Amino acid sequence: MVVALLALIAPANVIASTPAPLPNTITASPAAFNDNTGQTNIYYNLNNNNGSTTIDILGSNGVHIKTTDVSKQTGFQSQTWDGTDDKGNKVPEGTYSATLTVTTDKTTSSCNIVVDNTPPVTTYSLSKSKKPDSSYPMGVKLTLEATDSGSGISGISYKINSEEWQSYGTPVAFNSAGTYTVAYRSVDNANNTDTANGNDHILQFTITGSATASPTPLSTPSSMPTAMPCATPNATQTIEPCATPDATMTTMETPLPTQRDVTATPSTDATNGDQSQSYQATPSATLANGKKPVNRTLNTGIISVITIVSAVVLMFLRRR
User: Fold this and answer.
1) Given CB 3.0 to 4.6 Å as the disulfide criterion, which of 32, 84, 169, 271 pairs with 114?
2) What are the tens digits of pLDDT across the range 71-101?
3) Cα separation of 290 and 242, whole Å?
4) Residues 107 and 170 grouped into a single domain
5) Cα radius of gyration rounded to whole Å, the chain
6) Model's pTM, two decimal places?
7) Could you count the other beta carbons within 10 Å of the beta carbon of residue 24?
8) Does residue 304 sit within a domain?
9) Dihedral sign of CA atoms 59, 64, 66, 68 in order
10) In terms of domains, do 128 and 109 share one?
């Protein structure tokens, strides 16, 4: 009810949609502006104002710029400031303070106001170097940065080809071949926009090549080849080497031994009916394939001894 009555009696320059400050306090919105194209609204709330009340604009060093008398006003009020002094001259860029002084309550309240007429500066960089043909490789990233020494950066925006404008947050990756036109700009807190002669900044570049494929991991065999079991040796078998697991299995032949054990076997002499003893060298081992080894491998010295012994025995028997 009280708010509604205040809205009816307030001056025409009061913006009812702005939240009222606390009694005998002052605020400004926007807190930064370009005094060539805009202004700021100063809001204040007066409680039982029966004395002298003023709003003073002061420079950063405390120098007086402008004074507005707001005596006898009560409730939620507002004034505008267009960045001029008492003589109507434009003030230079900088930070100023608006101070509300209420003599009745002996209170003061201040807020800062920034005059910023200079647009921000926006720069770009690409994460990869150009190729010899002046194109860029796949996956290049675009980074946008903006600086402002006055009111600070409000935001950066960009658009690619015919797409809609969007806010910039993190580097933008280009992963498809083609030619791109990127428009970009930034704006500061005083609503100054970084443009080139009134136009957005334009960046054009071409992407060539193909995306780098991820390496395919080598497959792991489900089972390893099983080695053939080794043969169990016995008295008449020559041990062959175990088979080695491989794509191609090769059977190696067992070489003949260089020397064999020899046993003497008695035999009957059929010519005289006597039980004569003769000896015949017989290999004591048999190859794995069942064949007898060749006798040429017998030791020549052993054969000579056996022959001499046999002759002596025969002569002894015949003399008897």
Assistant:
1) 32
2) 878 888 899 999 999 999 999 999 999 999 9
3) 20
4) no
5) 56
6) 0.57
7) 21
8) yes
9) positive
10) no
